[in-house]
Known about the structure:
Oligomer: single chain
Bound molecules: zinc ion, fe (iii) ion
Number of helices: 23
Strand order of the largest sheet: 7-6-14-8-9-13-10-12-11-15-16
Amino acid sequence: MNEALHIRIYGVVQGVGFRPFVSRLADRLGLTGSVANRGSYVEVHAQGTPDALEEFRAALEREAPPRSAILKVVARPEPPFDADRFAIIESEHEAGDIFVSPDIATCDLCRDELYDPRNRRYLHPFINCTACGPRVTILDAMPYDRVRTSMADFPMCPECEYEYTHPETRRYDAQPVCCNDCGPELYLLGDEATRGRAALDAARRTLIGGGIVAVKGLGGFHLACDARNPQAVERLRRLKRRPAKPFAVMMRDLDAVRRECGTTPAQEALLTGHQKPILLLKRRQDSTLADAVAPGNPSLGVMLPYAPVQMLLFRADDELDARMTDALVMTSGNLSGAPICRDDDGAHAEIASFCDLILSHNRLIRLRCDDSVMDFLEGRPYMIRRSRGYAPLPFLLSDDLPGQVLGIGAELKNTFCPAKDGLLYPSPYIGDMADLRSVNALRESIARLDALLEVRPALVACDLHPRYNTTAVARELGLPMLPLQHHYAHILSCMAENDWQGGELLGLACDGTGYGTDGSIWGGELLKCNWRGFTRLAAIAPFAQPGGDASAREGWRIAASMLHSLAPADAPALAAELGLCTPAEFAVIATMCDRRVNTVVSTSTGRLFDAVAALLGLRRASTFEGEAAMALQFAAENDDTADAPPLPDCDGGAIPTDALFRLILQGRRDGLPSTRLARLFHLGLADLLAGACRHWRDRTRLDTVALSGGVFQNTLLTRLLADRLRRDGFRVLLHSLVPPNDGGICLGQAAAALHHLNPGA
Length: 761
Ligand code: ZN
Ligand code: ZN
Ligand code: FE
């Protein structure tokens, strides 16, 4: 006796081979019926014996394709229907919760075909299948079908068409499917007559010769050069005007990675997985890459090739293979601060002068997408930049939160977050809003992603700072606005990532710079938070931050200001002796602080790190954000002699970091090694912060602490602090797949906006 089931499957089920999987499964179990994409979900009608239906229902989740992510399956019995086979029904569009797949790294089967001389896609730079290839970056509109992607420009040859339309092939319904006969083509920008294999050869010869090549990948252009060639790497640094910020390296294969870096099994799984982020790995002592790749840095940002053109740079089955390096610097192709170039015009205008050759192709990138960057903390992924491979996968809040909103994100490391009915979709990385090109990229990307996800926001959350460019873009939308304090938004982001369903909690935001509700600069704040608002309970000891923007890069200014406020008799001479500044410069800082000229009051933990790094002679100033703080962390990791120093308790509103600074200064005067003092600083700061949490737990009875803010990219401090808090009986909420830095802000903004629309939830 046959029965029938009506099943809806919600989640990332578009563009990952879900319908052919369902169809094969139904055939195997002898079921009849149909499967269709409904935009928001996959709909199945299935008919067969009760046993077969039960097995079908279980296997749907058990055997789902590896790239899919099922959020929910709803199955209901329905009356039997007429059908003599199981059919795949073409896409019909329906509004609802939309899931757009991120781009997926080239799969192993496609990689094997790429290097199989008998395969008709042998060495095809655009090989892909139902389980891999570009997705969101080529998508123009939903539902995900070829006519609505950049591949609409490339009519399929008969063989590709056959695979595309036949469920038994690996390329059924693979929108970007193509081959050497019908696909896009490589070419050299500015020398378009050089195409295909000739263009690839020219690029490889340039790399072998120590040159710099811009390469168009999935989400934008990279600048590439041989990471084993010091002259090439140093030349790229000069051209890009990037003296010290580490470059990412793309390695040929896992063996090459193991020769340069230490890895754990979890890290190797991520390196070789389908998302292929840049992973921060410990560099081996005997690493032979050029030092200029990551000067003075014990870590290395490493990734494996994720697009076929990148694989072909390393190996193209010819005589160049033997001369080709196994490690290429792969850094975003952009001007410092500007978004990554995604088209030929942008590449021509912005990065042509940084390279000897531009290897482009004619598959359009519709949404730019930088590489994701990930660290590890307590054995779990710890995201630094969430973009390719992850965005725009949604986060789900369990609270019932109908409504549509937008979190516009932060001014630095901007990402934005459309959200709808409890589903939040953080965007790919956009960039720093100080650059107008980034502001335009933000406008353009919001329009595109809102359209793809069919989000029409009723409320837009932004930063409290009235003069931020993000605030201006939010205003342009002409919607009601919800301004949120920067550090509160950091904590909201951590609450959202952990699907916080409780009431109030403690939020500790240790960060660079944010605009406080009192007009001063915040960044070392203990807050009492819920989804509706916050109270500032405590902050690190305030200091004068003289020199406006310069003081964010020049830690010596903060150190001199702190020295001035401690007022030892020999302060000017001491500042000179410690290499902070000349007595004349010290006098200028002292005057600025005393008269409050171009000087703000600050509780920024990031600036405190800069000051201590300057005091210890590690970095007087930074050439990129976080440089001084990283130097301080690395120094601390080179010491295992220090014990936590004795420090006063938190007495309420003030976390006595000034006492810690004084202690480090004394150690410096006593001639203690900078590594030991760096360690003392980390231990002391962790103790002070944990002490403040204990103090306020006793008064609020809140024993959950969320840790967020850019300073928590420092995994040493985060580990020390989380250990202390747990030992003291706290429940600690940490980030994992959302960055603790400003790149995570948009998620918190969007979550708060959804709660704002639902005051009863
Ligand atoms: Zn594939
Ligand atoms: Zn073809
Ligand atoms: Fe921040």
